[in-house]
Amino acid sequence: MKHPVTREFTLAELAERLGAHLEGDGGRRVRGLATLREAGPDQVAFVANRSYLKDLSATRAGAVLLQPEHAAACPVARLELANPYLGYAQLSQLFDPILAPPRGGIHPAAVVADDVVLGERVEVGPNAVIEAGVELGDEVVVGAGCFIGAGSRIGAGSRLHPNVTVCHGVVVGARAILHSGCVIGADGFGFAHDGGRWHKIAQLGGVVLGDDVEVGSCSSIDRGALDDTVIGNDVKIDSQVQIAHNVRIGDHTALAGCVGIAGSTRVGRNCMLGGGVGLAGHLTIGDGVQVTGMSLVTNSIHEPGVYSSGTGAMTNALWRKNAVRFKQLDDFARRLARLEKRGREG
Amino acid sequence: MKHPVTREFTLAELAERLGAHLEGDGGRRVRGLATLREAGPDQVAFVANRSYLKDLSATRAGAVLLQPEHAAACPVARLELANPYLGYAQLSQLFDPILAPPRGGIHPAAVVADDVVLGERVEVGPNAVIEAGVELGDEVVVGAGCFIGAGSRIGAGSRLHPNVTVCHGVVVGARAILHSGCVIGADGFGFAHDGGRWHKIAQLGGVVLGDDVEVGSCSSIDRGALDDTVIGNDVKIDSQVQIAHNVRIGDHTALAGCVGIAGSTRVGRNCMLGGGVGLAGHLTIGDGVQVTGMSLVTNSIHEPGVYSSGTGAMTNALWRKNAVRFKQLDDFARRLARLEKRGREG
Amino acid sequence: MKHPVTREFTLAELAERLGAHLEGDGGRRVRGLATLREAGPDQVAFVANRSYLKDLSATRAGAVLLQPEHAAACPVARLELANPYLGYAQLSQLFDPILAPPRGGIHPAAVVADDVVLGERVEVGPNAVIEAGVELGDEVVVGAGCFIGAGSRIGAGSRLHPNVTVCHGVVVGARAILHSGCVIGADGFGFAHDGGRWHKIAQLGGVVLGDDVEVGSCSSIDRGALDDTVIGNDVKIDSQVQIAHNVRIGDHTALAGCVGIAGSTRVGRNCMLGGGVGLAGHLTIGDGVQVTGMSLVTNSIHEPGVYSSGTGAMTNALWRKNAVRFKQLDDFARRLARLEKRGREG
């Protein structure tokens, strides 16, 4: 489904907001974004990279965001700028119906403790529950059904979508986006084993999220055992991610869906972990490390670069023949060495 | 624990509902289902396939669903039909205490916007929150604590279990079942990188679920960036699944628990993905593809069939010896070729 | 962030609670726990194992938990006991601000059915919803926004953190800890295939959790098809775990984050499954089995011990060369055998 049209801008307005050079009718009004192929005359399209150029000549878009070098091939109005994909990101914010400035106000069906400190224009949705000692910065939006535990602080401009849980003693920086179903600050998984059974270690640390952090739906960031679990600035976390206690993640790192990071592992700045990647506990992953999807990392990584493990899918028939040989690899190695030795001696 | 007995049928009634041939006392009353081994005289059992036949002769069930060819071996009343497992599925619906027709009514502790369009016999539980512009079809059930965002539409006969989140601008078809904790329509994971940091791309598309879709607990289906994320009719999605933005899934496809599908990948009709399978982004998976558990798919698959990757568990001692050889495989290949060449030359 | 100081004990009090031998000033007051390196004079530190001994001589802690054999190296007051890590676990409970005894009471914004049976000092938070026929034992705490479905029973001393969902007909033992976002008792994933489409099998079993079970945030334990899904006593389940219908897990078993267990598999007592481990359906895993992170188990395991699969990450360049050889392993094996045969014959 398409959203109802909610906002309209002239091309001149968009050019000014983006700092782009406009060629075309500045008075033309547009109402949304679309791909080069699907855009109509009231929508803006973009050439994010060369692979899109093939669609440019036939576009019906009202205007196209592109680099100056592609201007000649554009049959319609154009907004020229160095990074059209960034321009697309910036315009997308304008057209998002959910990103209107908060109206402010506490819904009467929210349950907010008396001593909660509320910034300007804070908005709290119905059935949200906010415990004692919580501080919400200016323009924080707390969605319906959210829970914020005692003593937690949410920085200015942050948005908690509906049904988010922030446990007690959690600090969230400015401009965070927490998606529905995520849980920040549940207990880490810590037990002492004694007498044939588990004895729970209370998780006394908290969670600290820096500024501009995004956490996807149904993701978990557990609280620390003694010290805090710490997520740096501008860290982007997708859905279904598990971050265990006392993990520390550096600024600008991005974690794709279904990533799992075990306890006390440190991940550097500007890292990218692909979907389903697993990091064992107590590792150190340096800055600028990229790990491809579903890889298992059991050792620290100190050099930037791309890392991988696993094998890609093949037909089950081919896989059955080959996977069974995995258990024989050490045997192969020894037999191969024997043959080579015999060859040299023979 | 066993549920309290809530419904009772005669064998004649069941035979009629199933279109089965009854041999035995049509007036016998039964109150539930059980396996051949555990069923008592007031329960119905079934022979789903040949592996169950060994339990047939000793069953104490009140009646057994089976194929006519197995009738002779049945010591009790029998309901003969071509697909006994289907018959079991159909009877299971009768005995499910939660599947009573909705009583209808909006709980006084629900928060429902004034302009919400309500079909006949809609039921909304306590503390559910339904925003402006939502449409709920006939006999929709919205469980306690659910959130339905602005402008979303839920088709007739659909059931949202407690604490489900449906974000704004989502379309759910008829007879959907959304389990607790699932989140439909949270933002996809999209950012432009510029100046050493991430710039969010607002996710302006929606999510469209076809008819007869089921989504398991704590699963995420993210909204599209520009176009919608689209889930076909009769698609069955288990718990803890992540479906990224702009994924499209064809009719009758089933995804087991912990599957992750990255952005813009298309999965065909009648596919089955085993537990923990990961599909990379921007792939095309054709119709009738099955992928076994925890396989990683990084290339498109155009032929129907069964696909696999990975290796099964072995003792850690055996694994340590062999896994270390994985890094030497290319070296093995070269050495093997050298030996063969030498053999041919020698 | 650090929690506000909430409790204070003398070393003599702690020694008595732990049954530890105190050397030092019994009147010294302490207010929390920290590592040897970070502890100040009002905090207690611990020597969990020999690797911490290097930090002992320089510690500024108010007291240290340690084994008697390490007493000589301790520069401050000490609490000597056989298992200092257990001692740490026990003290951690004392200092956890959330583990105060429940104040009791039903919040006026909770929705509790008339016939719910409430033990002594039960506490129900705002916007929790508790359906008919539920029984809550003494000192049960139900957090804000939780849902407990019809007929479920929660044992004495159990705590449901905010936004937990317990579906109908679930039994939770004593002293359970259910973390936010977990869902106990959603439908298992069962369908009959007929006529080109899926027919739902209603899930008529329940879920039974033993005593002292912990379930992490956003984890799912599905209800059984006919019989129950059964989790033993003292089973510890981390975040983002999926347990399918009719799984049975033995006492004292621990499952790390992102584990997935498919339907009807039985896991023994005292097992440990590492993060991201996947167990196929209908397996039997014996007692005392440990599986390392992200391993795939497709066959039953009858002997205790450690099991593994997969391969660890390497540089992408190295991985590309080697992973492609995986499809050639069977070919390698045949060629190797041929060379050996030729060698023997030659």
TrEMBL record, chains A, B, C:
It comes from the Bacteria. It catalyses: a UDP-3-O-[(3R)-3-hydroxyacyl]-alpha-D-glucosamine + a (3R)-hydroxyacyl-[ACP] = a UDP-2-N,3-O-bis[(3R)-3-hydroxyacyl]-alpha-D-glucosamine + holo-[ACP] + H(+). One of its GO terms (molecular function) is UDP-3-O-[(3R)-3-hydroxyacyl]-glucosamine N-acyltransferase activity. Keywords: Acyltransferase, Lipid A biosynthesis, Lipid biosynthesis, Lipid metabolism, Repeat, Transferase. InterPro entries: Hexapep, Hexapep_transf_CS, LpxD, Trimer_LpxA-like_sf, UDP_GlcNAc_AcTrfase_non-rep. Residues 29-94 form the UDP-3-O-[3-hydroxymyristoyl] glucosamine N-acyltransferase non-repeat region domain. The keyword tRNA processing does not apply. The keyword Secreted does not apply. Its EC number is 2.3.1.191. Pfam families: Hexapep (PF00132), LpxD (PF04613). The active site is at H245 (proton acceptor). Pathway: Bacterial outer membrane biogenesis; LPS lipid A biosynthesis. CDD domains: LbH_LpxD. SUPFAM superfamilies: Trimeric LpxA-like enzymes. PANTHER family: UDP-3-O-ACYLGLUCOSAMINE N-ACYLTRANSFERASE (PTHR43378), UDP-3-O-ACYLGLUCOSAMINE N-ACYLTRANSFERASE 1, MITOCHONDRIAL-RELATED (PTHR43378:SF2). Catalyzes the N-acylation of UDP-3-O-acylglucosamine using 3-hydroxyacyl-ACP as the acyl donor. Is involved in the biosynthesis of lipid A, a phosphorylated glycolipid that anchors the lipopolysaccharide to the outer membrane of the cell. Homotrimer. Belongs to the transferase hexapeptide repeat family. LpxD subfamily. This is UDP-3-O-acylglucosamine N-acyltransferase. It comes from Billgrantia sulfidoxydans. The lineage of its organism: Bacteria, Pseudomonadati, Pseudomonadota, Gammaproteobacteria, Oceanospirillales.
